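ugh ok fine here u go
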Amino acid sequence: MAKPPVLTPRAQDFPRWYQDVVAKAELAETGPVRGTQVIRPWAWAIWERMQAEVDRRIKGAGAENVYFPLFIPEGHFRREAEHVEGFSPELAVVTHGGGKELDEPVVVRPTSETVFGEYMAKWIQSYRDLPLLLNQWCNVVRWELRPRLFLRSTEFLWQEGHTAHASAADAHAYAVRILQDVYEDFMTEVLALPVLTGRKTAAERFPGAVNTLTCEAMMGDGKALQMGTSHELGQNFARAFAMSYLDDTGAEQLAWTTSWGVSTRMVGGLIMAHGDDAGLRLPPALAPVQAVVVLVRDEEGSGARAARIVAELADRGGRVRLDDRVDTSFGRRSVDWELKGVPLRIEVG
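structure:
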């Protein structure tokens, strides 16, 4: 009788195949609260490389990193009507703390336009303070009805950028710059994913935005996945939080704002776009380990030869690992590295 495949074939059941890869490549597991996830070391190393590449591009676009609180007063969301209407079904709200009922409920951050708006309004006084370009790396919580690891989780990791500008044209140009020079460039050059950039319909816009730009990538099941978005917020949040400034004539003006983000959903997109029936396949630029040297048998000096190969590759800047677990079968180890998607496997002995 033929042995069953390690993974459910993609053509047979794509969602099940995806779940198999996430589990058997040791990428993530479901957390103790519905919709949460535990990201394991291999996937975390992939995310760290994604984060570093995106962060470098964001800083290249002039933005600076900050950190804002996880908890946001519920009243902040009511200041922008469309925003609160769009997010209300997904909010996690804290009503008690320290054994007492809170005077005002506190929302666990689903996104941070409101709290950024409050503080950016304090920091902007003059046209000389613009543009103000900020970004933060953090976790957010959105109560998902149908969670899937990496793709739709109740808690996920992301970066969210928030900027203020003196004109609609400048805000639009920056939103486009983030979409193209940061997101599209990263996805094509590092993730090796061709993406289609474009504009969301009015019904699909981010709540409170006047325009949402998107990067969409084609997955192995023939469906598109939204990989990142960049929003023009017009003056909606500036008006809600009195984000005004004095222009070069001394007249008071409202700022124009943007927000934009990518998340751990990119890990899911990487799996679905590049994976096959043997497991994950990682682009070399992104792989935590670019080459693994597998010692088949530690005989006749093969262990020393394997170590020399590892040292030579490492000296040339490669991310390389030695697998000398000869007490584990060679077949098992080969399957494990195939599942994890290491680009190059060198077998010695």
